[in-house]
Amino acid sequence: MLQTVSRAQSGADPEHFFSARPLQTLRLSGESYDAKAFAAETPRTLRWRRELLDALIRGIRRRWARERRRRKVGRCFDMALEIARVIPRGSEVLDVGCGNGFIAHHLSAILGTSVVGINLGNNADAPIDYRQYDGAQFPVTDDSFDAVLLCYVLHHAQDVRVVLNEMRRVLCDGGLAIIYEDMPRTWWDKGVCWYHNFLWRGRTGPCTFRRESEWRALFESFGFEIVSERQLSRWRNLTHPVCRRIYLLRVNAATA
Q1: Torsion of CA 175, 92, 125, 240, to 10 degrees
Q2: Which of 9, 12, 152, 198 is the most buried (most CB within 10 A)?
Q3: Which H or E run contains 200?
Q4: 8 Å CB contact between 151 and 79
């Protein structure tokens, strides 16, 4: 009898075992969902996730830009405080190569006077008395400033003699020049200076970095007396860790 049952089962219609059931209601977590409605929900969920991710990325970018702006403005404020220690309050100051203009902006508030900024660009980010510079003659009159400021500018000059002559022309008697410069002292400094030149040579031309003795000889040859000089920490700017030096110059009365 077992053999008879076995034969009956083996002769059964194969479609009986492989026939598909029609789509039924999908049940999730005890609730009923139509299969078509569930499939339609998926694109809306993916779109919502993309929108959320895009909003998160935009927020991170805004935050990063804000932090970069704060660091940039903060560094300029620190330099303005340092410069203000050697310039008498109320002095008329010219910032050559003022960049974004925030050093001049902070310095004008500290000194209680208007600081003029000049640069090759069309304008500055900060609200200052800005004048465009053609790379040759400073757009100001003779003997009109008590101090001239050059923050990491001279190594960009294609003819440093033109800049130093213009600096002497616009300074009043007894006027001061404050100069910040990068120094290629060690192999590390030379590497950083090389990379800086790589980034800027397409915009301002090749950079020329000099050692301390070379700067001293150059300043003295143009009739400037070196009032003081000192080395600065290379870690002032972590993105540009190079040896730095600040010079305080005065026009030599004997050669004026």
Answers
A1: 30
A2: 152
A3: helix 187-204
A4: yes
For 34-57, give the DSSP string. Answer: -HHHHHHHHHHHHHHHHHHHHHHH
* Stated pTM of the model: 0.74
Q: What is the DSSP letter of 234?
A: G
Percentage above 90 pLDDT, the chain:
56
Contact between residue 232 and residue 245 where contact means Cβ atoms under 8 Å apart: yes
Residue 89 CA to residue 83 CA, distance in Å, equals 11
The 10s digit of each residue's pLDDT in 50-69 is 878 888 888 888 888 777 77
- Helices (H), ranges, 11-124: 15-18, 35-84, 102-111
Tell me which DSSP letter residue 240 carries: S
Q: Return d(Cα 45, Cα 51) in angstroms, integer.
A: 10
Q: Which CATH superfamily is domain 71-251 in?
A: Vaccinia Virus protein VP39 (3.40.50.150)
The alpha carbon dihedral of 84, 113, 179, 227 has a sign of negative
Rounded to 10 deg, the angle between the 212-221 and 160-170 helix axes is 50
